[in-house]
């Protein structure tokens, strides 16, 4: 693992209900290591973002033709990345509790594996990712203190932090997930992950960041 203090950084904004975030969550840590880039984990909620932009839920649901295409595309993309895939019986699935836990652990060593386990629950096992039983089970299986983490995740302070982080996403112009930010440079969509990491690793990007200090 590259030291976060020594490596250039990329903010990774993701939502647990987002199918394309699933693809990125499952592979971002390995790709970031390969590029020598540190990940700044940024869980947020797409629902309030869509509402603020005037959309009634996921844009995929507004057009059935687009949704049918998305399910075809997910089969192809999961085959490409050798990821298991089960079309969720509920879409988009509410990931509020999982997001609160992820925000709590964003700087902890277990965050990457927790994110992957939640995504596996949603897009491989077709399981609820918003129940204390399921999310607590994930934490316990990882050897973490599930009860205390769930309590902290649902504290008023942490709930407010997630609201503020989602507000920050809107203020910085995010309109979907996954989104990758290096400074003010935005890359949207799973298929832009490698472009974002390459940009973050470039000398030009690092020079711009130093000039912005």
Topology readout:
Layout: E1 9-14, H1 19-35, E2 38-43, H2 46-52, H3 59-62, H4 64-81, H5 96-104, H6 111-123, H7 132-141, H8 146-153, H9 156-171, E3 179-182, E4 185-188, H10 193-201, H11 203-211
Parallel strand pairs: 1-2
Antiparallel strand pairs: 1-3, 3-4
Structural features, described:
- This protein has 213 residues and is of the alpha+beta class.
- The protein has one domain (9-209): Glutaredoxin.
- The protein has eleven helices and four strands, in the order E-H-E-H-H-H-H-H-H-H-H-E-E-H-H.
- The protein has helices spanning 19-35, 46-52, 59-62, 64-81, 96-104, 111-123, 132-141, 146-153, 156-171, 193-201, 203-211, and strands spanning 9-14, 38-43, 179-182, 185-188.
- The chain has a four-stranded mixed sheet with strand order 2-1-3-4, sandwiched between helices.
- Helix 1 (19-35) links the parallel strand 1 (9-14) and strand 2.
- Helix 1 (19-35) runs antiparallel to helix 6 and helix 5 (96-104) crosses helix 8.
- The longest helix has 18 residues, at 64-81.
- The chain is globular.
- The two termini are 25 Å apart.
- The mean pLDDT is 93.
- Keywords: Isomerase.
- Belongs to the GST superfamily. NadH family.
- It comes from Alcanivorax dieselolei (strain DSM 16502 / CGMCC 1.3690 / MCCC 1A00001 / B-5).
- The active site is at residue 18.
- It catalyses: 2-hydroxychromene-2-carboxylate = (3E)-4-(2-hydroxyphenyl)-2-oxobut-3-enoate.
Characteristic terms for this protein:
Thioredoxin-like_sf; Glutaredoxin; 4 strands; alpha+beta; EC 5.99.1.4; globular
């Amino acid at each position: 693992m590259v030291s976060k203090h020594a490596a250039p950084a990329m903010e990774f904004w993701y939502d647990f209900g987002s199918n394309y975030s699933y693809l990125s969550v499952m592979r971002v840590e390995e790709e970031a290591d390969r590029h020598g880039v540190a990940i700044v984990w940024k869980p947020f909620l797409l629902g309030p973002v869509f509402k603020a932009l005037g959309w009634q839920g996921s844009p995929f649901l507004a057009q059935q033709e687009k949704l049918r295409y998305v399910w075809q595309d997910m089969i192809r993309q999961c085959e490409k990345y050798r990821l298991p895939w089960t079309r969720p019986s509920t879409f988009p699935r509410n990931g509020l509790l999982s997001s609160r836990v992820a925000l709590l652990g964003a700087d902890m060593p277990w965050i990457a594996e927790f994110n992957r386990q939640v995504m596996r629950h949603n897009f491989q096992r077709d399981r609820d990712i918003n129940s204390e039983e399921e999310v607590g089970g994930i934490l316990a299986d990882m050897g973490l203190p599930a009860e205390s983490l769930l309590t902290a995740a649902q504290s008023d302070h942490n709930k407010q932090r997630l609201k503020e982080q989602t507000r920050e996403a809107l203020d910085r112009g995010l309109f979907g997930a996954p989104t990758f930010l290096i400074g003010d440079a935005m890359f949207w969509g799973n298929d832009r992950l490698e472009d974002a990491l390459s940009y973050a690793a470039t000398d030009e990007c690092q020079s711009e960041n130093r000039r912005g200090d």
